[in-house]
Amino acid sequence: MQIKDRQQLLVIITISVAALFLADMIVLTPLLKAWDARQGRIAELHKKVDQGKALMTRGTGIRNFWRQISQRSLTNDAPAAQQQLDQAVAQWAQDSGVTIGGINRMFKQDSEDYATYECQIDASGDLGRLTRFLYGAEKEPLALRVQSIELGTRDKEGRQLTLSLKLSALILTPPSR
């Protein structure tokens, strides 16, 4: 092989390698990235479809659960909600025999979908009565959440106890039509 033929061969090989490199950079790499992104998007869509199917199969249960919660929430009229909660507290006190020392109430509009009615109840009695009072609060069908419980004593023997119970009641705001 002569030098001129060898130079032409090297130039052809160099141009071919450069062309392959450019083709890889311009065509192949972007196509592979697009393919991977498409595969990721397809996997994400499959996941969303599976979640949608799961929601559809559980739809009746979710609707029933939501219906129960909405039935257990307080009415969205603030005075009527206060009366509902006061009646429940009075019933717990009557059933357990505790003495109610005071009730502090606060209405909070947490969002446009719901509000909470917070209630701080101070009660006194012996351990058995306070336990029955707490049991009445726990088994209450209203949508209540116990925020905090504090117990204290009034005498040295610990027979007369004080209870500070902070409750939060749910008030659902119906959507406007």
Would you mind describing this structure in some detail?
The chain has helices at residues 3-57, 59-72, 78-96, 127-139, and strands spanning 99-108, 114-125, 144-153, 161-172. It has 177 residues and is α+β, with helices and mostly antiparallel strands. It has two domains: 3-57; 76-172, Alpha-Beta Plaits. A four-stranded antiparallel beta sheet has the order 1-2-4-3. The radius of gyration is 35 Å and the shape is elongated. The model has no long low-confidence stretch (mean pLDDT 87).
Question: What topology does this entry show?
Answer:
Blueprint: H1 3-57, H2 59-72, H3 78-96, E1 99-108, E2 114-125, H4 127-139, E3 144-153, E4 161-172
Antiparallel strand pairs: 1-2, 2-4, 3-4
Helix pairs in contact: 3-4
What does this entry show, briefly?
Helices cover 57% and strands 25% of the residues.
Q: What features would you highlight for this structure?
A:
4 helices; 177 residues; single chain; Alpha-Beta Plaits; alpha+beta
Instruction: Tell me the name of the CATH homologous superfamily of the largest domain.
Output: Ribosomal protein S6/Translation elongation factor EF1B
Q: List the secondary-structure elements in sequence, H or E.
A: HHHEEHEE
Rg from Cα? 35 Å
Strand percent estimate: 15-25%
| Average pLDDT number | 87
Summarize the main sheet: 4 strands, antiparallel
Please give the CATH class of the largest domain.
Answer: Alpha Beta
Spans of at least 5 consecutive residues whose pLDDT stays below 50 are: none
Q: Under CATH, the topology of the largest domain is which?
A: Alpha-Beta Plaits
How many separate helices? 4
| CATH architecture identity of the largest domain | 2-Layer Sandwich
What structural class do helix, strand and pairing data support? alpha+beta
